[in-house]
Amino acid sequence: MSDELDLGVLAGSFAEMLGAEWPREKAIAWSQAPEGFAAPLWNQMAELGWTALTVPEDHGGLGLGTEAAAALHAALGAAAAPVPMLGTTLATTLVAAAGNDAQKADLLPRLADGSLRAAVAQPGDAVAAIAGGTANATIADMVDSPSATTLFLRASRDGASCWLVLPAEAPGVSVADTALTDATRTLGTVTLDGVAVDDSAVLVPEDAAAIDDHLLRTAAIAIAADAIGGGEAALAGTIDYLKVREQFGRVIGSFQALKHRIADHQAALVAARGLVEHAASLPAGHPHALLDALSAKQHVTRTVAEIARDCIQLHGGVGFTAEFFPHIYLKRGKLNEALWGTRNRLLDRIADMLEAA
Amino acid sequence: MTRTFDIISKVGDESAFRREIRDWLAATVPADWRRTWQAVRDSDLKAIVVDWLEERRKVGLATPHWPREWGGPGIPFAYQIIVYEEFARADAPELDMYTISLFHTPATLFEHGTQEQKDRYLGGITHGTDIWCQGFSEPGAGSDLAALRTSARREGDHYVVNGQKIWSSAAMHADYCLLLARTDPNGPRKHDGISYFIMDMKSPGVEVRPIRQITGEAEFAEIFLDDVKIPAANLIGAEGNGWNIAQSTLSTERGLLIFGAVERLAHSFELDRRAATDGWMRDVQLRREYAAFHAELQSLRLMIRQLLIELEANPDKASPTLPTYIKLIWGPFLQRYTEFLLRAEGIDALKWQPSIPGTGHSSRLRMNDFLKSYGWTIAGGSNEIMRNIISERILGLPRG
Fold first, then answer.
1. Confidence of residue A1 (pLDDT cuts 50, 70, 90)
2. CATH number of the domain that residue A317 is part of
3. Do B295 and A295 touch (CB under 8 A)?
4. A-B contacts at Cβ under 8 angstroms
5. Structural domains counted in chain A
6. Contacts A307 to B, Cβ<8 Å
7. How far, in Å, are A344, B282, B287, B336 from residue B276 at the CA level?
8. Cβ–Cβ below 8 Å for A299 and B295
9. Total-model pTM
10. B253 is annotated as an active-site residue
11. CATH code for the domain of A53
12. Could B397 and A243 be called an inter-chain contact, meaning their C-beta atoms sit closer than 8 Å?
């Protein structure tokens, strides 16, 4: 399938649907009264097969790779769509790589059809201890956990690292919602209090560290893609505004002091998009697959957060109001910077990899 | 026993071609060339550069980017890229002094010159005997080049030229100059009435004064023109069409020069880290700063590769916007990275050393490289001009 895939056509179809179903007015209205995740939008995405994008074909998916996933996440970032797609992309990666046949047969088709909404623990999240058939843990700040039907948690059993897959409704599982500045995603603290665990709920990777890196790469690409989509949308909207807003008898977009900042942002985004696309195009086994993904993530999320910051300033007074869009991208952009490894953590890892090369 | 090399015949087999260049470079570029070139005095520089060009000519690489009709090897673009890549990897000397000779002069003459002009001038370039410079900028016409005031007045079979040019790279070594001068001061727009000439630098009335740069070296010069006679046969194209001709040949290097520069920096980027393994790479903050540059360097290489891929597929239909973005990103990146090295290496990086000709922007003399990085942010249309182009022509923001 991926041989005949035209990424441009795919990206165009994502943008077209989101433009119609999640236009800017909706994004602005949502930001002022969020309700978890946008269920109707999610259902439409599922019907169109978007949730099945990277699920292997023999489990009801389209079997596409990171390039297609990046195109989707970029489109969702551009629309600032409040849907838990990151969880789907990551859980699919995790189950496909570390699940046994029964787990794949159970989880992947439900990820594909969108009925399973996933929240996947980040590196450094609390590890659930499994002992005597029960699990206990408090996992703070799991992104998308309030909207998830299934939680994918880092765990340990008999001293070995593994993953614990639990329905959010399971007895002993509770998710306490934490209000988040970014209204397009949700955050919660997950508590496991003597949750009964059987083997079917435990994913045991052959090489836990390798799976961690594989997931980290997937997350880095998806988040960087979300960021670049958001950055491009924020800048394009700002340029539109600068072309119509008048002061001193002329449109403010004619002022060089503003134009030059716009030009720098535009060039930075063109460069950043290249990084995301390249990182997404590498096969998972490429020696630079992780390095280029982390490098893209740290750079693109930083760059975009900075551009989104300036988009508020470039708007002037209205940029400070909830009714105008820039704050949506700034808040989503700041969350992207923080998710799956802060910049310093990633830079340390990048330096390690450069030194090992 | 030295082996003979036949690089051009390997075209058709990329890896054999690459291997042959690599072997030739290893056998030909002296390991200590940087020291030799660093020690050379201004007056001997041309001789040492001509020797290197001659070595390249022996294997058909004096002008690797020239098509056959220019008298070049006519190798496909993909192979030209390999040449630049391997030269960068081997840290072979650059031919800075010949940039105009190798790129702008042939492009201008082939596109707009008469058969006589081509016959007369191109041979001197391939043999390295002639160095060309460019007489475009003036003290009052920098970014606003079309404001140039140097005048050329027709008198019989020649023009009489008066004025002043500035920032002419290698002008003190040059034999000829590609000169823009105003033949009609009354054109409707300032771009009209400009003509394009070939000027013999030995003509009476030409005076060249090298300009000492902030690096201490003098790579470019001012040219003073006092009643200089230029034969009418040396006019390129039609009188008054100089602006259009200059525009059409400004971007003739097709990304290869900046590609070479960035590949050289990528090579340096690794050497810098290796040399600092027990030094600043052990400082958490500097190590992170260094790691952050990886993404920026990577993004530049990707953009340039994209441009080269497009040019290879269709030389006339490559992205018109990409070169502007590349220029706006590359200069400031180089400036920030070389500045980072100053901070990382401390006082050692601030000790004076003579510059090393032929090393482009990666001499690895820290202060020199930092100071020279302004060459990319100011020359060839300052980055402020690039920002105007992006915001006005690409993004459609109104002119101020």
1. very low
2. 1.20.140.10
3. yes
4. 111
5. 3
6. none
7. 20, 8, 10, 18
8. yes
9. 0.94
10. yes
11. 1.10.540.10
12. yes
